[in-house]
């Protein structure tokens, strides 16, 4: 599974998302929206207006979502 976190500078929810994913042992790549205008425009076109935006396979969401992160950490539940 490939997880991408779209973050911004000085974003508490972004930091909380990264910290929880680290604690769950999830690997991810970061894309900073403050430095990548093209990514920011793509997410806005999808309707996102809040960071972080997490994309993992066919699932994506915005904001700090511990429930979704825990679901990613349990692959058998993510496939249900």
TrEMBL record:
Keywords: Disulfide bond, Electron transport, Redox-active center, Transport. PROSITE patterns: GLUTAREDOXIN_2. SUPFAM superfamilies: Thioredoxin-like (SSF52833). InterPro entries: GlrX_NrdH (IPR011909), Glutaredoxin (IPR002109), Grx-like_ET (IPR051548), Thioredoxin-like_sf (IPR036249). Residues 3-61 form the Glutaredoxin domain. The keyword Chloroplast does not apply. Belongs to the glutaredoxin family. Electron transport system for the ribonucleotide reductase system NrdEF. This is Glutaredoxin-like protein NrdH. It comes from Mixta calida. The lineage of its organism: Bacteria, Pseudomonadati, Pseudomonadota, Gammaproteobacteria, Enterobacterales.
